[in-house]
Amino acid sequence: MDEKRDDEISKDTLKYLLKKNAILFWSVSPEKIEDLPLESLVEAVLNYGNMEQLRELFSEVGEERVAAIFREQIKRARKVYLPMVENYFRLYFDKYVS
User: Fold this and answer.
1) What sign for the dihedral angle of Cα 15, 19, 22, 24?
2) Distance from C-alpha of 61 to C-alpha of 39, rounded to nearest angstrom
3) In sequence order, which ranges of 27-82 are alpha helices (DSSP H)?
4) How far from chain centre, in Å, is Cα 22?
5) Tens digits of per-residue pLDDT, 7-21?
6) Mean pLDDT for all residues in the chain
7) Distances 9 to 3, 12, 82 between C-alpha atoms, Å
């Protein structure tokens, strides 16, 4: 898959994905979900999403861009991923995404 950058992901596409996956954002008020950044969507889908949500995220955003966001997020002091999720996607992206 081709890598897509933030500026290549339309605001409409991001809003669509956020709205479609709104159930993953139980701690965010419904009227604020569409204002979340792409990083929040990646975190929610990787942590709590199902296979269909993950495939759509990869399709719309690009596997390489999701991997780049993930790799930046796991460098931070505040951990945002469940330990098993972080381990799985670290191994997955290291093997399948350069």
Assistant:
1) negative
2) 11
3) 38-48, 51-61, 63-75
4) 13
5) 468 999 999 999 999
6) 92
7) 11, 8, 26
How far apart, in Å, are the Cα atoms of 58 and each of 3, 26, 29, 40, 95? Answer: 10, 22, 26, 15, 16
CA 46 from chain center: how many Å? Answer: 6
Dihedral (Cα; 37, 40, 42, 44), 10-degree rounding: -150
Residues 6 or more apart in contact with residue 6 via CB below 8 angstroms: 38, 65
How distant, in Å, are the alpha carbons of 16, 58, 64, 84 from that of 35? 11, 20, 23, 28
Q: Which two tokens stand for residue 92?
A: 């997955």
Q: Show the CA angle centred on residue 3, arms to residues 21 and 80, nearest 5°.
A: 45
Asked if 24 and 49 touch (Cβ cutoff 8 Å), the reply is yes
- Per-residue pLDDT band for 58 (boundaries 50, 70, 90) equals very high
Per the CB < 8 A criterion, the answer to whether 1 and 55 are in contact is no
pLDDT-derived band of residue 98, with 50, 70 and 90 as boundaries?
Answer: confident
